[in-house]
């Protein structure tokens, strides 16, 4: 089955700097890759996703890149702000209601 | 996300007791999922259901049971066979034919 590895497990950046979180996956059939943000004690919230037919997607300060050949995808957050501090999860799945397989998460701390 | 409710928000259980966690949705989504979250472990799939009266085991189903008698409801029972049940439990839903999962607010279960 699918296995998703996520790095780093913790990340501290200065406010205004960029943050990058990387994930690798094992199943070449996976074609949907979402990223979730979870604040302390809250539910995970979808922040951006990408499908296998594109290599990059951007939404304001957040971008995701996908390299299907290497089986890895990354989350990029630019101009970080204190409210970006949270745990971020990557995930992967193939189409058709297949359950998502999640990475173990990255705790991002943005230092003002 | 507002269309998914989980109750109770906090639950305390004595060892040896079965408890049932509620998950209800009014989004008319076909698929429903239960995840367990432990610190540093990410989200691990317990059970999922793609249609009424059908469900499949996830990666950590031992000690848990579910039912899907109605489209709107997917209750999870934590049995006394689950040795380490203290965790944050998240329910999620997905509309058929799409990829996006939406999470409920979660139930925090503590075994005393």
Keywords:
heterodimer; A: 112 residues; mainly beta; six-stranded mixed beta sheet; five-stranded antiparallel beta sheet; 54% strand; B: 112 residues; seven-stranded mixed beta sheet
Q: Secondary-structure map with pairings?
A:
The complex is a heterodimer of chains A (112) and B (112).
Chain A: E1 4-7, E2 10-14, E3 19-25, E4 32-38, E5 45-51, E6 56-59, E7 62-67, E8 72-77, E9 86-92, E10 101-102, E11 106-111
Parallel strand pairs in A: 2-11
Antiparallel strand pairs in A: 1-3, 3-8, 4-5, 4-9, 6-7, 7-8, 9-10, 9-11
Chain B: E1 4-7, E2 10-13, E3 19-25, E4 31-38, E5 42-51, E6 54-57, E7 64-66, E8 76-78, E9 87-94, E10 102-103, E11 107-111
Parallel strand pairs in B: 2-11
Antiparallel strand pairs in B: 1-3, 3-8, 4-5, 4-9, 5-6, 7-8, 9-10, 9-11
Plain-language structure description:
The complex is a heterodimer of chains A (112) and B (112). Chain A is an all-beta fold. The model of chain A has no long low-confidence stretch (mean pLDDT 94). Chain A contains no helices and 11 strands. In chain A, strands 2, 4, 5, 9, 10 and 11 form a 6-stranded mixed sheet that branches. In chain A, strands 1-3-8-7-6 form a 5-stranded antiparallel sheet, with no helix packed on it. Chain B is mostly beta strands and 112 residues long. In chain B, the strands form 2 sheets. In chain B, strands 2, 4, 5, 6, 9, 10 and 11 form a 7-stranded mixed sheet that branches. In chain B, strands 1-3-8-7 form a 4-stranded antiparallel sheet, with no helix packed on it. Chain B is globular. The interface between A and B is medium-sized, with 23 and 25 residues.
């Amino acid at each position: 089955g699918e296995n998703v590895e996520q790095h780093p497990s913790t990340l501290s950046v200065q406010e205004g700097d960029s943050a990058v979180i990387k994930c690798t996956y094992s199943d070449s059939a996976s074609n949907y890759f979402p990223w979730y943000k979870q604040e302390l004690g809250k539910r995970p919230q979808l922040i951006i996703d990408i499908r296998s037919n594109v290599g990059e997607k951007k939404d304001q300060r957040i971008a995701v890149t996908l390299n299907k050949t290497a089986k890895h995808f990354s989350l990029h957050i630019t101009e970080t702000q204190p409210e970006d501090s949270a745990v971020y999860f990557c995930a992967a799945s193939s189409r058709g209601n297949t359950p998502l397989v999640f990475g173990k998460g990255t705790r991002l701390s943005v230092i003002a | 996300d507002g269309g998914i409710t989980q109750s109770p928000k906090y639950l305390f259980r004595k060892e040896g007791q079965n408890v049932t966690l509620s998950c209800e949705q009014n989004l008319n989504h076909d698929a429903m999922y239960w995840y367990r979250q432990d610190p540093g472990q990410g989200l691990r799939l317990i059970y999922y259901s793609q249609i009424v009266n059908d469900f499949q085991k996830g990666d950590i189903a031992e000690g848990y049971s579910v039912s899907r008698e109605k489209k709107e409801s997917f209750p999870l029972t934590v049995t006394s066979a689950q040795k380490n049940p203290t965790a944050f439990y998240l329910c999620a839903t997905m509309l058929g034919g799409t990829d996006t999962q939406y999470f409920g607010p979660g139930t925090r279960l503590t075994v005393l």
